[in-house]
Amino acid sequence: MDILQTIKAISNETRFNILEWLKHPEEHFCPQEHMPATCDFKGGICVGSISAKTGLAQSVVSGYLVKLQKAGLLESRRSGQWTYYRRNEEGIDRFIEQLKKEL
């Protein structure tokens, strides 16, 4: 994990907010009705729902989500035409531990 890349990823207020919202997605997003019942990606929220909450274009939000995923803070799953994102709790824990060691 590149700690500086991760810090840069969360240094943007909207990206930081997305991580916060995804901590408790049921409080911040409508149910993901288009997610198939067979999909085992609990807590996953589609890009469109995240885009609507931020008020930003879906293309901008997609870029933000990819940046957070590359930093190890999110994971994604594609189901049909939808891509869902959720927090990568293991990645977040690794980042926190590494940050503690380095600072």
From TrEMBL:
Keywords: DNA-binding, Transcription, Transcription regulation. Residues 1-103 form the HTH arsR-type domain. GO terms for molecular function: DNA binding; DNA-binding transcription factor activity. The keyword Oxidoreductase does not apply. InterPro entries: ArsR-like_HTH, HTH_ArsR_DNA-bd_dom, HTH_MetalResp_TranReg, WH-like_DNA-bd_sf, WH_DNA-bd_sf. This is Helix-turn-helix domain-containing protein. It comes from Paenibacillus dendrobii.
